[in-house]
Specification:
alpha+beta, 60s Ribosomal Protein L30, Chain: A, Phosphoribosyl-aminoimidazole Synthetase, Chain A, domain 2, 2 domains, six-stranded mixed sheet, 26% strand, globular
């Protein structure tokens, strides 16, 4: 099997989106942009041994590869439209490729985002996805809009993926549900679209709540105070924290792909309606102030957020 057979057999699917006028099979794809919209783009690389282990299934690798990009698009309040895939694999493994392809195709159809091109190469297992989306001009959520007096919120629960990883490296056996939170997170696509009309700043929690919220603070030239007791956590993580008083997992653990965002005061009722319509729990954890940096109340133990280098 050569490169072109691989692409034809595993990564050439019908495209239903009429805005994609040319997809897989040419030197580049063509994507039509409607008047009054801006293009949003993001890219993420997942590397074996760094972002997933050699025992991670092809299905889960494909899932996470697509989801981390969808999460970035959601954090901008944008609508994902299409993506490219650059895949490096050590050898042709038809069973692995079929599982990877089936998972990627299923998710792309679920979130209505089209695969329009990419590249394949022989080498260490490495998946790079570049995703493109659209948002109404001047409506994109950014990290730089937070203002003193805004409240700080997060979606869902925080620390689940980090707790699963903690169990794995400490020779505990995580539950299937915990493994799902680590390997198959859910992007807050609908929530991001709703927040663009309400939030002042937004980011997805990929490298840890403390670090990602700090990105908002730095970009907005503001500070914040959050209370650890207000961070929404799962029951199993709550038991662990009660036993250890160690809040470093929800503060510093990454891979949650929840949204952390700021909302001007007086918008609580509108936010409640969004929470109900999206069926997503939303929790206030702090407030923006005019200082610089992040103050964390309720935990002064060691914190070590994820660093890529």
């Amino acid at each position: 099997m050569n490169e072109f057979d691989l692409i034809r057999d595993y990564f050439t699917w019908p495209i239903k989106d009429p805005s994609v006028t040319l997809g897989v099979g040419d030197d580049a794809a063509l994507f039509s942009l409607d008047y009054g919209y801006q293009l949003v783009t993001t890219t993420d690389t997942l590397v074996e041994g760094v972002h997933f282990s050699e025992t991670t299934s092809a299905k889960d690798i494909a899932h996470k590869s697509l989801i981390v990009n969808l999460s970035d698009i959601a954090a901008m309040g944008a609508k994902a439209k299409c993506f490219t895939l650059a895949l490096s694999i050590p050898k042709i493994d038809k069973s692995w490729l079929q599982d990877f392809s089936d998972s990627l195709r299923h998710l792309s159809e679920q979130y209505e985002v089209s695969l329009v091109g990419g590249d394949t190469s022989r080498g260490p297992l490495n998946i790079n996805i570049t995703m493109f989306g659209i948002v109404e001009s001047s409506m994109a959520l950014t990290r730089s809009g937070a203002r003193p007096g805004d409240d700080v919120y997060v979606s869902g629960t925080i620390g689940d993926a980090g707790f699963c990883f903690w169990k794995l490296i400490n020779d505990f056996v995580p539950s299937n549900q915990e493994l799902k939170r680590l390997n198959c997170p859910t992007p807050r696509v609908e929530l991001g679209l709703e927040l663009k009309n309400l939030a002042s700043a937004c980011i997805d929690v990929s490298d840890g709540l403390e670090q990602d919220l700090s990105h908002i603070l730095k970009a907005s030239s503001v500070g914040a105070v959050i209370e650890v007791e207000k961070i929404p956590i799962s029951e199993v993580l709550n038991v662990h924290i009660k036993d250890t008083n160690d809040w470093s997992i929800p503060l510093c653990g990454g891979d949650d792909y929840e949204l952390c965002f700021t909302i001007p005061k007086g918008s609580e009722e509108a936010l409640k309606k969004i929470s109900e319509s999206c069926n997503v729990k939303i929790t206030k954890i702090g407030v923006i102030n005019d200082s610089l940096g992040l103050q964390i109340e309720g935990f002064d133990g060691p914190r070590n957020s994820y660093q890529h280098f």
